[in-house]
Every structure is written in structure tokens, then in C-alpha cells.
Batch of 4 targets.
Target 1
Amino acid sequence: MATIEEVDAPKRQSRQKRGPPPLVRYYLVLYNVLSALGWSYILLCTLVHVFDLDGAHSSYKEPLHAWLARIPYLPAARKVFATGIAARLEASLPAWAIPVFRRAGTAYARVGKQTAFVQSWAALEVLHVLLGWVRSPLVTTSIQVASRLYLVWGITYQFPETHTNPLYASMVLSWSLTEVVRYTFYACNLLGYEPAPLLYLRYTLFYILYPTGASSEALLIYATLPHPGLGFAHSFTPSVLSALHTYVREALFVVWWPGLYVMYTHMMKQRRKVLGPSAGASGRTLGAKPKSL
């Protein structure tokens, strides 16, 4: 799910060291810069593909439900269900949006491997917390990293039906926009700067990107559930592990929505701390050099 940003209280900040040792600081700057570049590449590739900015798909005419029908190893009942939904959805779209919708359904083929590779490096963020190099809550960081890794390796990698789901494109766009801003902000902060535009974007983009990202994640999980979705139709599946994983996905789909509410309201509070009137009263100036790294 989208990343929760943490803001330390002034008293806690005053007790913290000014930052990690120089070598660790240089490493963290490099890590954040490379992460920002990686997500920038994914963002650019996804935008080019979905909106056909390079003209490579200008003659693409095949409807999305035709792609769904060719997914290998997908049971026929699931194919009929998925293609039917795709056909009805396309019919309800305006003419200009249909090509975008169709290309979004092929985004995994363009950026799926790259997204999994770049996202996997986020596992280092848990190590950074354990080593005390960054001041983030261990439990929160672990949950956030684990949920992302589960989506790229436990959902999209394992289930071919997600490879032609347009929600994959919206999820990746939400992730990449969030991460480009976040990692760039962290790199600047480690270098002793807090650019006002980045600070504003960091605590404003969530209004759009949290709902689009988290809902895309949840609905991709739902898309992998046996038809008709939530229920006990899969109770007698031949594979015990497969049945167990199905129940896990059902539980995750249910808890994803209250989790989004908690994260969303949390970020609204954090935004008021950083950008609200109380931020100026506590001496924080937009774009000023940070007092603590």
C-alpha cells in the first residue's frame, strides 16, 4: 500500500542525533537517488506505453477482452467472466479513452519485470531501520515493504490474469509518482535541503495517489480470487496451499479498505503538521534547510 510518511514531534527531534555518519549518509543519498531514477524510468515507460507517446501502438485495434481470452492456464469459466467485464467496460467508455484502456491492459508486458526489480530493492529499507540509519517505525516500514513485495511477487507474478488488467497500470502509475517524489525528497533532505515544491508534493499527492494506488492493489487481489470472488466455492480445491492462499487473499482484500482509511486520515494529520498553520508557529518554514536529518 502507499507509503505512510512520518513526522517526528519537535521534542523527539531535539533528542535525535543530527544524522548518520558521513559514509552512511553518502550511501543513503546514493540509494535514494538510484531509487528515484528507477521509479522515474518506470513512470516514463508506463506513460509512454499507456498514452502511446511514442506512436508505437497507434494502430492497435484489438479489444482488451481478446487479450484476456488468450491467457494461458486460466480456466475457461474465469476467461468468460473476465472478458465479459472487459467488453462491458469498454462499451461504456468514450471513444478517446478506449485505446488508453486497451493499452493499460498490456502495461505488465512493458514494465512488469522492471517494476518487480525496482520494488524489490525496497527491502533494504527494513535493514536501514534495523541498523538505525533512518528514523522510521520498524513495524510500519516492514508492513509497507511486505505488502508491495507481495503484490509484485505473490499476486502479479503468480497470476497471469493480472497481466492484462488495466488496474495494473493505474497501480504502477500511483506507485511511481509517489516514489519519485519521496526518494527525491529524502535525497535532498540528506544533503541538507528541503525544497518547497517537493515538500508540498510529498504531503499533497496522497489525496489522489493513495485512493488510486490502494484501490488498484485491492482490486487486483480480488481479480485473482476464484469466480464469483469472495465466498467458499474454493473450499474443496485439490491443493491445500492454493486454498489457503485464496483465503489469505480474501482476508487482504477485506482489510485493504479500512487500511486505506487509516493511512489516508493519518496523512491528512501529517499534512496539517507540516503545511498547516501550526507548522509556521513551530518555526518550520517551507523550503528551509532541515534542522535534523
Target 2
Amino acid sequence: MGTPFITLLEPTRLDGYDNSKPSSQQAPHISKTFRDAMEVREAVFVAEQGWSLALEHDADDARSCHWVTYASVNRTTEPEERDPRTGEVTRPRKSETRGMPIGTLRIVPFPHPPHPHPGGRYIDNVLQEEEDPPPSSFKKQGDGAATRPRTRTLTSVDEERQVSALPFGADAPTTYHDGKEPYVKLGRLAVIPMFRGHHIAGQLWHAAKKWLEDHPAFFNPSVTELGMDQLKAGGAGDIPHWNGLICCHAQEGVVKLYEKWGFKVDEGMGRWHEEGVPHVGMFQRLQIKKVNPKV
């Protein structure tokens, strides 16, 4: 494997992305970097972990920043041929080197849905009723489709946040989140199996972390574009802005990895299931420079 390199894709339009098809069959107008990110996610979350292809791409992808790690991989395009009598090479082997996507992660800006309910089971970010079928029933089916169990009744907090253009309203407070402060969310971290053990995940995180530290106001809403009323801000001090807080919904099997990176388990968020996999909430605060509200 050659020296890996990392590419950043900032928020981009993904109109026309077909959830029923793999990344290799998407229309050419879809960003190649995003298709590469999906290639990795499909290899890990769909092929390896059994998640539904139809649920892997979601509405957050277009508004997120995506980092993709590539490895320079040499592959044979035409094999060597030899004379069977003399053993002499009659046609040399031909090969090519390509940048192969091997890892990815994304950073989702605020706002976010309410924190998961402890003990809840979620499919495509929607909390399911307790009497719904077990998780195995909504993983990938024979025809590639995913079944949709019934969803629960929305609470007043859910309804308020859904009808708001920018739902920065109060959420349930947790150990490390007061329920109000805007945060960004680290997710969709994946490294294909054959390249694990080479610190690819750590390189991705450090690249994303440095970018966040260098661009602390990137996701802050523009007052000029949205207006104070839509931002629900009575004054400059009420304008939502990011102050370095990062959340991660971590699969329980990788909690120790995130802890090495400085994340802490948020005991107040409890434990829940996403697509049948147990998760916990984790937070970390980066030390960033204060910036004026975006106008």
C-alpha cells in the first residue's frame, strides 16, 4: 500500500442519488468523492454488518462534510505471458495504479434531531414502537428493500423541533450537553477490512479535527440569509454558533477507540439501538477561536 492521502468534500447537492442502487451504479453527476465514501460505507455497513443499502444514504449526507482516505493500489490489467517451450516472456505484465477509497467519515452540522431515547430502537433515525419486530426484521431483505416498522407518537418537543425551520430549541439535557448548545456530529466512520490496523481511522479523525479547528464558523448560520426571526434570536448573543462541541453516536464495540481520541461516554444519554446495533453517546470539546456571528 502506498502512502494514503485524504480528500475533503464539503456540503454538496446530491439530487438524484438512488438509494436502491450501490455507489458504482449512481449517475455520473453525483460527486465522485461522495460515491467513493459510499463505496467504503457499503463495504463496511452493508456488506460486512448487514445494514440495509436503502438506509445507508440519508438526508444528512448533502449538508455534511465528508473525508475520504485513498490508498495507491497497483493492480494487474494484463497478465504476463511466456513461451511454454522456452519460458521466455512474450508479453510483459501490464499494471496500473489507482487511488482506492479505503476509509471515510462525515461531520454533520447542527441542528440535529432530539437525543435518542435511552433503550430506544431507531431505524433511519426514527424511533420505533416497543412492540415492533426484532432488529433482524429490518436489515437487508432478499430484494434489497427494508421493512418499516411502525413509528411512535411524537412528543411535544419533537413536534416543536420539526415545525421549526431551524430547531435550536431545548433538547433533553445530558451529562455533557445542556440541551441547548449547538454541536456537530461525527459519524459514518468506516475503514474497509483489509486496511484496518494501519491507523487509517485515526488519520481521518485528525484531518477532520484540524479542519474543524481551522474553520470554526463554517457551519454557523448566516444572519443575512435567514434573519433573526428564523434563528429565534432576540439579540446577537442569541444567534446560534458552534463553540467546539462534538457528539458521536458510537457503536459499543468502538467506544475505546473514541476514548483514545478524547471523547467521553455521556452516561446521561444511556444506551439505544440504531439499525439493530447498540450505541452510546460520546462528546468532546475542541478548543477553538471565538468568531463573530456570520452575516
Target 3
Amino acid sequence: MDPGHQLHHPYPVQSIDTGGGDRFPQWSIQETRDFLAVRAELDPTFMETKRNKLLWEVISTRMKEKGYSRSPEQCKCKWKNLVTRYKGCETTEGEVMRQQFPFYNELQTIFAARMQRMLWQEAEGGGGATTSKKKAVAPQFSSDEEDENEESEGEKVGAKKKRKIKAGNATSGNSSIVKGMREIMEEFMKQQMQMEMQWLKAYEAREEERRVKEMEWRQTMEALENERIMMERRWREREEQRKMREEQRAEKRDALITALLNKLRREEM
């Protein structure tokens, strides 16, 4: 293992006794997130095959490439525990859920993508493709349940019997799980619609505020223009009055000069 990859473990790592004498380190938060990323990438393949032993070996190899030493059995056990905790968080409040189970969003993304693929398969199967539709609308956690039934080669017969027993109850189980996933998708769509409505309301509020400010600006400009017109009108009136006074003074001056000239002429005569 590359020593540089040890940076993936930012939290103290302790050892856990599995009961058989073997000890392996706890999963750190970053290691679990990397594991979920690899598991999400291979989830479509898990849903297409019934024998997942090789897939868990692939995941173990991918984890080794990332710097983690995990066996296929440890990866499968970790996935089973995460799914169990995810199921237990479905009825828990959001903030409490995030505090108790920090990987809820990652698992929700995986199962939402799985459900979307199943719905697409159901839609593409058409009305007459009953067999393909049943395969498409499989339980959300079906691949995980099959992982639990995959044991050693010596237990193949028992595992087949268990799958046959589960197949008898598949119809009712499938419908309830699909219904639950549809409710989740509907709730998700409602949240998206609510977010869109909130965005539209905020946009309309900003637009209304902009219109009000624009109206106020126009009213202010109109008031300034009216004031300018009134001031110009008063200036013109004062200018006309000044001209009239000057004309009157000029007339008086001319009249006085004419009177003086006439007087001088009479005196000379």
C-alpha cells in the first residue's frame, strides 16, 4: 500500500475484534464516502446480475487502488450495515438524521438513481411486456437482499430455496416498495416545485421593487423638469418686464430731449 494514501484516514483508527480473533480497522468517514462512490458506480451492474461475489471483489480492488485494505466480505458487510441504518432513518427528522447518520444523502442518491432506472425500464417495457416489467420494477433493496443470500458454495441449495420462498412474496413486496419510492419521488418533485415557487416569488418581489424605484425615479425627474420649466418661465417674465422698463425709460428720455430742443429753438427765435 502506498504510504501517501494514509491521508484518507483523518480520524483516529481503532481495531475491532470480529469475534474470530481477526481484527480490522474501523471505517473512517472519508473511507466510507469513497466506498459509497465506488458502490454507486457499480450499482447498475449489481441490479443486473444475481451473483455479486465478483462485483464485491471488484469493489475491494478499487478500494485498494484508493489506498484502503478491505476484503470483499468486509465491503459487503459494510454495505449491509449502511443500508440497514438508512432504512432506520426514513422516519427520522432531517437534522437529527444527518447528525446520527452522515451518509444518508449518499445512499438516498444511490437508491433514487436506482428507482429512476427501474421506472425507465418499466416505461420502455410497454403494456404487454409483463415479464420485463416485473424485472424492471424490482425491490429497491433487492440486490442487497441477494448479497445477504450469497454464501459459500456449500450453501447454494439453501440459498436457492430462500430465493424461491422470497419469490412467492415478491409481488406484494415489490408493489409496496415501488409505492414508497414513488412517494419519495413525488415528495422530491414537490420540494422542487416549492423551491421554484419561492424563486418566482423572490423574482417577482425584486421586479416589483425595481418597478417602484423606476416609478419614483420618473416622478422625481418629472418634478425636476416641471421645476426647470417654471424657473425658465419666471426668468422670461422677468426679462420681458426688464425690457418693458428699459423701453419706458428710453421713451421718457427721448421725450425730455425733444422738449429741451424745442425750448432752445424758441429761445433763439
Target 4
Amino acid sequence: MDNSSLITFFVLSGLNETKNQRFALFFLTLLCYCLILLVNISLIGTIILDKNLHEPMYVLLCTFCMNGLYGTTGFYPKFLWDLLSPVHVISYSGCLIQALIMYSFACSDLSILAVMAYDRYLAICRPLEYYAIMSKQKLFKLVCFSWITPFCIMAVNIFLTSRLKLCSSYIRRLFCVNWIIVTLACSPSETTVNSIIAYITIIIYVFHGFFIMWSYMYLIKTCVNSMENRAKFMQTCVPHLISLITFLVTVLFDVMNMRFGSKDLPQSLQNLLAIEFLLIPPIMNPVIYGFKLTKIRNKFFVNFKIK
């Protein structure tokens, strides 16, 4: 029998202990989501409208912000609805789609950061060859790689999950998470392939992380003896490093809590750890880049200056 005919919906029980603060949480969440939309759309619009910003670094930054909007849109509208609803359910297919969005968003963020690191390596270490190597065609391929590859990898993970026979429909989270759905399987032996593919996925993105760290270590070594390169590093690479550290810390907290966290932790603390990567990076990244990168900062103030 098809699994989807056995379980048609999931119950999200992450909000069970926050009944008395629902309206306060709703307005606070709505404020955060509006802020995320404002800062990301402002930065995207600034880059798109100014032809002088149609350079690889800024195109990648635009891609980064678009991915932030993609990930947060997969979570906040449903979460806001749940805060006002007495019943917190999501359809079976809707849950799988949300899990796909959450995971592909996180993996795309890491892929984009890896491409950004490669771009900064070329700009600082091979400046004379930069525009020859980072052509429009190459940039287009790298952007497609950073979006399509994570989506396809996570689609495989979600497809394998959709084949499992589940014996429970209760998810102790605010949103659907693929690994938690896998743990609801009736037979642990059925999840072997899921585990193998999940570990392969983790290895792939751990290598992304190693590549990023190697790139920046090499850049630091290169920039030490050059005042010009040092200034370029401080202006363009420091925002990337801050974004990387913010992303890794927030995702690591969520993964550690999901895999090894104690069930005795207060639900509110578990919820905070779970949504950090959907709250802090989407707000911080546009703000950091907007203030740190001179071209964007100057253009932003020109566009929004009160005359």
C-alpha cells in the first residue's frame, strides 16, 4: 500500500508549550519576516538596478540574498499561520516540500559561500586573469551549480524518505525536517539507504566547508605582505567570513540539537535553536554586506537619500 495513503498529514507539536504567548510571538515573528524581506529585497534591488554593480562578486551576493528569501519563505508564512491556528498540521506532501526547501536552502548557502571564496581567490591572487576566468558564462554556470546541485541532492533524500512506511505523524518541531521524518519509519532497516545517502550528502558539504577554509587561509597568507591586497581582503573577504561563521554556527547548533540534544531541554529553547539559521543569517548577511562593501553602501544611500 502506498505510504501517502496511510499518513495524509503531520502534526507539528513545537508550539504546544507557547499557547499563552501566541499573539506576542506572532507580531515578533511578523516583524522579523518583514525585516528579512526589507533588507534582502533592498540589496537585491540595488544590485539589479545599478549596472556598475553587475560584477561577479555582486551577482553572487544577489544570489545569496535570493536564496535567503527562498529559504525563509518556506518557513515563515506557515509558521505565522500556525501561531494563529489552534491546530498545527501540515499535509504529507506539504511537509516533504517544506523539508526540501529547508535543506536545499541551507546547502545552497554553503555552495554560494564556496563560489564566493573562489571568486575572492581569483580577484586577489590572480587579478590579471580574473575577468578572463570569471566570465559571464562561467559565472552563470557557478550560480546554476550553487542552486541546482543542492536542490537535486536534497530531492534524492526527500524521494527516499517518501518511500518509507511511517508509524507516527507527530513531529516535535516547528517545521518539517527530513531526518525526523525518517525516524518515524516503522522499520529501522528500511532507513539504511536514507542514512547512507544522508552521510554522503554531509560529506559533500563538509568538503565545501574545507574548500572555503583553505581558500581563506591561502588568501590570508597571500595578503600578509601586501598592503593593497590586505585592504582588499578586509573590505571584500571579511563579510564573507562573518557570513560563513554565522551560517556554520547556527546550522551546527540545529544539527547538534536534532541529533544529540536532550529531550529535557525546554521546548522554547529547542525552538530557538531550530530556527536560528532562518533568523540570524538572512538578517545579518544583507546588513553586513550593505555596510561593508563601499559601492553598495554608497549606492544605497544615494537611492534612499531624503531630498
